[in-house]
Amino acid sequence: MRSWRRFGLVAALTGALVVPGQAARALEGRSWITDDQGRALILHGLNTASSAKSASGLPWIGPDDVALERRLLGTDSVRYLIQWKNVEPSPGVYDEEYLDAVAVRLRWYRDQGMHVILDMHQDIYGPAACAGAGNGAPSWATFTDGLACAPQSPWVLTYLQPAVLRAYDHFWNTTGRHPELGERYAAMWRHVADRFRDEPAVLGYDLMNEPFGGTRQFGFFEGPILTPFHQRIIDAIRTVDAANWIFVEPQSLGVNQGAESSLGALDGDRIVLAPHFYPGAVDLGGSYSGLTKLLVQGEFAFWKHNMTKLAATLGRPLWIGEIGAMDMSVPGGPAYTTDWLKMTEDLMIGYAYWSHEGGTGPDTSINPILNGGLTQVGRIMARPRPRAVAGVPTAIKAAPGSLTVSWTASDATGPTDIWFPGTTAPKVVATDPYTWDPATRTLLVWPGPGRDHTVTVT
């Protein structure tokens, strides 16, 4: 969550600015996340949630909150946070009561027809690394060699404390002293996938939130360490689950702000590139205006270019695992939200907004839903959107109150699914037959003859 904004700014500004057309060309020949009907999924949802970083490992939500999210925002997915320390409190011992509690919550999403990406979350390695400042790894998997650690402000600086750096170095086994940690992590993921592979709501697994290389960074981390780590976890999961999608993240430092990634190729099918986007200049300037806005727009350009290029090079679908997190009371907050939404629409990619909590009022909260209604950021996010496309998407043109979706025919068997906000029936112009459900605000466009298809909803 929101990590490496300050550290990554310099890295994000080290290349030349690119024109938008370069990002668009990088998407040619792209692949898509698909469902069991062969439709391209444009996943829109929330991260649930910071409260899952607590000792219990469970978020604050209840079933009514999930239903409200679906109704007010039209979300079709969730990035649901779980933690290694809760899954495996002792080496090789898995907490089935915790996993039972997760299973209950997954059913809430299943009841709403939503896809779940299980995210193995960590920040600052784990709570035992630095006086409870982090989350993720269990204490038995935390080796700091007695080095000093004091939580810092802003919190992200805690990553540079000697104890935290050493804990990561031992986990990645760059010290050569703890190869068992990677083995246990892979076995833990195998257990989780085995447990949830038959849960209809589960679409896939996000292997590690915002990987951080300790004293190894960038090309010294992503290529020789992180890539084979991802492959090990993929291989472990595939021994029990060949069907669900696997979401892999590049390192967070720099890449979250738009720097290039040296993540390498991975073997296997149904793998998604799932970077985050947190422009450092937003935090540095505290606004989205003036010079800060220019810097952030540069980070937009870098991120679009570098991440679409990486997705094309690896031959993987692109999805943003975290994006957002700007207080609406800050100058330019609404405009920033509108701009990152437009970026996802232009690139025809989905996202998971950070996060489903935070803030105290409708015009200051980063939580899109507060006290049963939409906040300011929620009202901006409640835009018409395609959730599933019955073919290969070729264009998504969105604005408040209108949406045009175009695609070419494929072997998809289900309809194109479009959510539309508001209370009045929209006007629809489509090349194919359609049905409108006012209760769920859902337009279903059924596959018709021909190669090219378009629907406009206003």
TrEMBL record:
InterPro entries: GH, Glyco_hydro_5, Glyco_hydro_5_CS, Glyco_hydro_b, Glycosphingolipid_Hydrolases. Residues 1-23 form the signal peptide. Pfam families: Cellulase. Residues 49-356 form the Glycoside hydrolase family domain. It comes from the Bacteria. Keywords: Glycosidase, Hydrolase, Signal. Belongs to the glycosyl hydrolase 5 (cellulase A) family. This is Glycoside hydrolase family 5 domain-containing protein. It comes from Actinocorallia longicatena.
